[in-house]
Amino acid sequence: MHRLYMAFHPFELLGEDARHFSNAYAALQDGTNPLYASMGLRYLEIGLEFFMQRGVSIVFMFDEFEEMLRQMPVKFFLTLRGLRDVNKKQLKFLTFTRTPLNELVDQMGISRIDIEPFIELFHDNVLYVGPYNETDAYRMVENLMRRRRRQYSADVVNFVVEASGGYAGLLRSIFHSLESLEGRNLVVDDDTLSHLLHKRAIREECETLWGSLLPNEKQVLKMVAGLMQYESTVATERAVNMLIPKRLLRLDKAQGRLYIQPPIFAAFVRTNPD
């Protein structure tokens, strides 16, 4: 309700209903009435109706959805599903998580059957937030050079983009470590990558990527890195099918081989983390 208030204030499009919406919102701010907490969803439904009647399309974006899933009862999400069913063409939900929703629900001990009506909304609409594309990665390096008032050759810029794979955090941390590479032949090889992994900022970025992965995804990466024998199972193939769109695995169809990417992360995996 608060988000609706902030997004549409001063409510010109509501006309005479602006006063009714404001009154409903004000009632929810009354901390002295314990009933309002349990009636919050009903007031959200009422508030939405004012905008739905006028053909407004609304997208609710749930950042760090893990925390919301941890705190809110299943009934809350089922109510959201009900609101969406009533307003299919106008109401959408967008969740941001580090883990697929099905896996997240299992990790938190929530019954999949109970919450399925909500999470099934997202089954066919999953997008993985990966690295920058090549154009944006080069633009990012140019911005960093401008901010640091440093100018590097095209070969150095190419090295940063290739080694980082365009991942924002890795790209920044490798760029800021370039001074330690002065005098070296900047080639993306084991020696140079090993040197970079000794930089705390770079290793922390790799650890963040690693920490976001599921156990079976980590196992597959270790298999691809040669730390474990590769076993093709249903769980393995499912992990591969998640790692490829995340741009952490690349399939070379010509050779029939999997490669870990980006190169600096591949070097990190070879150190056998965990």
Report what the structure shows.
The chain is mainly alpha-helical and 274 residues long. It has 3 domains: 121 residues, no CATH class; 74 residues; 61 residues, Arc Repressor Mutant, subunit A (Orthogonal Bundle), CATH 1.10.10. It is 56% helix and 7% strand. The protein is built from 16 helices and 4 strands. The chain has a two-stranded parallel ribbon with strand order 1-2. The chain has a two-stranded antiparallel ribbon with strand order 3-4. Helix 13 packs across helix 16. It starts with a helix and ends with a helix. The model has no long low-confidence stretch (mean pLDDT 89).
From the spread of the alpha carbons, the general shape counts as globular
Helix content bin: 55-70%
Number of domains: 3
Structural class: mainly alpha
The Rg value, from CA coordinates, equals 24 Å
Distance between the termini: 43 Å
> The biggest beta sheet, please?
2 strands, parallel
Oligomer: single chain
Q: How many beta strands in the DSSP annotation? A: 4
Number of helices: 16
Mean model confidence by pLDDT = 89
How does the SSE layout of this entry go?
Elements: H1 2-8, H2 17-28, H3 35-38, H4 40-52, E1 58-62, H5 65-71, H6 74-86, E2 91-95, H7 101-107, H8 112-119, H9 134-148, H10 154-164, H11 168-175, H12 190-197, H13 200-211, H14 215-224, H15 234-243, E3 249-252, E4 257-260, H16 263-270
Parallel strand pairs: 1-2
Antiparallel strand pairs: 3-4
